[in-house]
Specification:
The complex is a heterodimer of chains A (about 375) and B (about 180). Chain A has about 375 residues and is an alpha+beta fold. Chain A is built from 15 helices and eight strands. Chain B is elongated, with a radius of gyration of 30 Å.
Chain lengths: ~375, ~180
Amino acid sequence: MSHDESLDTTPMQSENLKSELLTLNMGPQHPATHGVLRVEIKTDSEIIAEATPHLGYLHRCMEKHCEHLDYRGIIPFVDRMDYLAAMSMEWGYCLTIEKMLGTEVPRRAQYIRTMVAELQRVASHLMFYGTYAIDLGAFSPFLYAFQERETILRIFEELSGARLLYNYIWLGGVWNDMTDDHLRRIAAFCDRMDGELEKYHTLVGMNKIFRDRTANVGVLTAEDCYSYGATGPILRASGVDWDLRKTRPYGIYQELDFESIVGTGEMGTLGDCWDRYYVRMKEMNESLKIIRQCLEGIEEGPIQGKVSKIVKVPAGEIYMRTECPRGELGYHLISDGGKIPYRLKVKSSCFTHTAMLSHMAPGQMIADFVASIGSIDIVLGEVDR
Amino acid sequence: MNSKTENLQRYDKPLTFTGWFKNVWTSVTTVLKGLSITIRYVYAEKPVTIEYPEVREPLPENSRSRLFNDVENCISCYQCATACPVDCIYIAATRRDKEAEKIKTKDGTAIRLDLQQYTIDTALCCYCGLCTTVCPTHCLTHSTDYEFSAYTVNDMKYDYLAKDIRMWRDRIVKD
């Protein structure tokens, strides 16, 4: 055999070269995945061909735990699902049980609940603002956002005794009463936040680099949102006016005057990352508006309704949903009339939003995919439960 | 795939001559606007960071930190253990002798059971505060003590009948 025969004589040209997709694991310890999410991506150089999110790294059997706990003991557990919006989690759960029990919640407790839930929404969106800026390479907005978030956490700490996992909203009411000092500080916070939010938007939202990296990226049309079951800010950013606080009011929301923010596609296409960012920034303004109205309307009175010492929910089934900072949170409770629930299924918005990653990814560059993950603002504690 | 083609189109948009200058102009102005805000934070805002081990911010009164049970006032009613969602409170009590001296708690409730063991596994505790709210004599309280660590998990089990832990009372009990 001659030496020449073994040589491949075809010229080195791009059409003759073999190419294949590179499988890359993004996460579970990737800083841009906001927790422990692993996304398996198949890339063709920088362009993503396929992305599959893998879940379960933070699975703590929440729903199974709930089947062995009395109804009051579940509240600290639902806190731990979405640890950035624990108040909203508690409120949804308490509404579910109260509806089954037929408990009347006193007016003062209703106002306090609305206020803390909206403060929580502001805190959660501030967290989004900070981490999203970090994802896209700006660090200082994170510090500014946390400075304001600290004010909210301090108020919550004084109300409930804890900074993140409050166990503050109880069946039939709330744990501690708000003092005048708290109300005054909340009012001062609202006044301060107005200027701050404008500043934040100038700093990040109007920045050319940020706009170029988010406008037209990760576009989700209204049809995509319907087919995946997206809710909350993501659905609204795609131009669908659907806010549970408006369309299916719970608590005292029907007495309050606020707007549901819908994306406009100002900087690019409707439903892109910039829209999702902007909807959240505008929502903070609306939350402050709600808090101001609550501060005006708050009444004196009891903060705890009548709930028997041992809670026994009558046999039956209920699905109750509330608007959380991240979307629709639903509790499906099946009770057999005992002291513990038969089944408590939690419908989490983050879970459905994670599924949308595989829809957004094809054709994106890896850096744009990071922007897409950040824009849907998932909390893995709620995804895995 | 619809979204794929859309995404790909984004990367090869033509750039016009005026567009290029417009890009430069908006980039410079918006970045400078942002920088002015950052500079304002540097000079006009007071520092808010607390340098922790040297400076400590006092926790609020009702802060939920390390649990403390004042065993002299405990009537062994087991309500805290029942309320606990993670079952980390271990209580053992025996019936008190009828001939024995009658004792009462601080608020006047008669103690009918002798507490033999009152242990809380702090490593399991989730600091939810459900046990302290059901306590009828208010002997189980959350203290504002938050700096506690141990070398082994067993050290996190606090036996409130032990002498050294009883001595915390002088330090942390809120009356």
